[in-house]
């Protein structure tokens, strides 16, 4: 392997990418567009939620609480229920998305320094809205507690208000924080797979391959030279996507960014390997495109990005275990949301590395310095 | 005599079709060998096997001291190959293409600049250095492709119909470059559909159905042609052709350039008879013998192969 020769291929690729507006669009615009579109489609910025209230308490304290719900702008207390059954009806027929139930002893409990209970019922059929309801209600109750502590000054209370939430219909909720990490994986795969699958086919289609393979360049040099530019591009894309999710969507990264980038590179190699395999077996760019879509679709649908793997039928769930994206999304969510360290992710590390090496090996075997 | 390219019963099949059939060719050192033949004769397949883009089914070839089967990678340092289709990067500039190939061939930095400059000058492309290759005319594209193939000063040049679709002036210019290269010691193996180009080669081989059916110095091929050509100019060449083909002594009749060429054995007898036949039917402005061209010879050989 001759590094200079590899470098000359890399440089040539970048010259070509620079002049190809469509490729640049895929590299830069696709991650931004997809993140914004999917991110907003799954956005939690829901407010003025129609709410039903069943207030059993007659004290001023309960009315204060309801006022602060209204003042938060998140809740519109549109319906007054007079029984639990009525609350259920409001939510059942979709008039209300949430129900607040205040027990009769609420004011009394507060006065006596006891923990007062509030019940929150949430329609979970729309998980993103449900998530907002839960978190905003939590916020309202939290600030209410602080108010009460201030007023009662000095009295020691472990907990002033106790919000008991119950989510109906769909206890498996996903939200933006849950969506964005998965989305990053999807985007990274789509971009790199598509670009690499084109890279060799394009040379073959345009005839430039014929000239290139009569030169002394070796097969490995050619392959490495073809992969490296897209590793760099993939890396730029992941940084772009992470920046967007942190600074725009405010999804904090709980774990180590270095670890995240390390996993991204490993995943990239696998994805590029698949792209190269596609590139070596396709006869035209159109075919490469179709094959890439064929690879990308199951990855998006079955990797747990869209639907939880736990909810899939057994056979479909099995398919998900052979998709690299499944593991990468686990890693992304693990690091971004839970702050997982390497110790918790070593299995995924092994699997993703094997995927990467495997596909690169297949590509090496498949790629021949010949024309058919 | 020293040979630079030696092909030994090279064979390549695609399914049921034998593209190249036990091909035998020897090309003398420092000469231009022209491979001519109709479409599908197997010229491109032969070229591709020689530069190991395709693996032959059987047979082998020797280029210089390299065996194309055993030393198929080493050989690449010493050959230049121009595919039929423009195969450089259209989205790179002239200079970038040259630089890319000079890097791939590992030309040292010192040499590179000088070499590229001389090639640009050689091919008259200096003022187009910063144009994208796609924006060049057909002739300039071919000169650029040749230049990229000369960057490593190859000893052997394999050119697959390099002037196809190029205007006559640019074609002549291209051949001038080839002659210069021959002077510098390069052995050139070129395929061409143009007979005027074939006549310029030191030796030509006529390829048909995967085999060489005639191979010699162009002048020998013409001189050894044992039939006569009658050239007819008339107002209705097509009718003249049909009339001529009705006659037993006419071996063939075909259009070539402006005239109708009729192949016969006995010149006087045939011209006498044909005059009679054409009389009253079409207006003939002239019937006279013409010296056979390479094309006449090849058309006859290919036709007799079919019979």
UniProtKB/TrEMBL annotation, chain A:
<feature type="transmembrane region" description="Helical">
    <location>
        <begin position="227"/>
        <end position="251"/>
    </location>
</feature>
<dbReference type="InterPro" id="IPR051449">
    <property type="entry name" value="ABC-2_transporter_component"/>
</dbReference>
<feature type="transmembrane region" description="Helical">
    <location>
        <begin position="21"/>
        <end position="42"/>
    </location>
</feature>
<feature type="domain" description="ABC transmembrane type-2">
    <location>
        <begin position="118"/>
        <end position="370"/>
    </location>
</feature>
<keyword id="KW-1003">Cell membrane</keyword>
<keyword id="KW-0813">Transport</keyword>
<feature type="transmembrane region" description="Helical">
    <location>
        <begin position="257"/>
        <end position="279"/>
    </location>
</feature>
<keyword id="KW-1133">Transmembrane helix</keyword>
<comment type="similarity">
    <text>Belongs to the ABC-2 integral membrane protein family.</text>
</comment>
<dbReference type="InterPro" id="IPR047817">
    <property type="entry name" value="ABC2_TM_bact-type"/>
</dbReference>
<feature type="transmembrane region" description="Helical">
    <location>
        <begin position="178"/>
        <end position="201"/>
    </location>
</feature>
<dbReference type="InterPro" id="IPR000412">
    <property type="entry name" value="ABC_2_transport"/>
</dbReference>
<protein>
    <recommendedName>
        <fullName>Transport permease protein</fullName>
    </recommendedName>
</protein>
<dbReference type="Pfam" id="PF12698">
    <property type="entry name" value="ABC2_membrane_3"/>
</dbReference>
<keyword id="KW-0472">Membrane</keyword>
<dbReference type="GO" id="GO:0140359">
    <property type="term" value="F:ABC-type transporter activity"/>
</dbReference>
<keyword id="KW-0812">Transmembrane</keyword>
<feature type="transmembrane region" description="Helical">
    <location>
        <begin position="349"/>
        <end position="367"/>
    </location>
</feature>
<dbReference type="GO" id="GO:0043190">
    <property type="term" value="C:ATP-binding cassette (ABC) transporter complex"/>
</dbReference>
<feature type="transmembrane region" description="Helical">
    <location>
        <begin position="291"/>
        <end position="309"/>
    </location>
</feature>
<dbReference type="InterPro" id="IPR013525">
    <property type="entry name" value="ABC2_TM"/>
</dbReference>
